[in-house]
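Protein folds are increasingly written down as discrete tokens. With that in mind, we are printing a sequence and the tokens encoding its fold.
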Amino acid sequence: MQIIVLRGLFYNWKQPIYMDFDTTISKDIVFKAINKAHASGYNVVACVSDMSGENYGLWNKLNVSIENPADITKEVFLFADTPHLLKLLQNWFVYKGFLLDDNVYVDKSLISVLIELDSNELKVCHKLNKQHFEVVGAVRRQYIKLVVQLFQSTTAKALELYKLVNDENIISNLSAFIVSVNDWSDFMLHQQLLQLLKCGYGLYEVEQNKCLNDVFRIVKTMHSP
């Protein structure tokens, strides 16, 4: 089933405007939806979708960011769904790990040791356990809650506290990676007025831009070993 939903940027409002079965969302369908929304008085500024093969193909046809078919003076920006990006990040982190810039390697191995060490009654990472690595089957991979818990700042702090290996660079590199992912997920998934990275974009623009740039730099250079 395919659904297109309009939602407000500044108001908690959603409205389904398209639904169909056994079809893919095409460029024509997207343009018709934008035009109809515009005709009804709604200014469409962005589209969000997950990174399925069908949607990725649609992005290519739309040249990633597109001109607004209802008003060529305004652009419509395309964004990947943040929870889906986090799930993909977790899958690769758990199964393969990543090679980052300067040939820095990060993976789950130290966190696995941390979970074993932190399994007593008094836990530092009370939300972290073995099920975060038991990513078996499509259903388990849909648990965004587990992904967010894995890349929490408390995990990074626990790694620095326990010092599981003698090489401090390994610890600091993994910790910095986790903190960057945590900050980015806080920024993209939450809206809390008084929180530095959980409020709307622009309230703390310097810090928010740094968060985005840090993750952009990581993603741009990282690859599977």
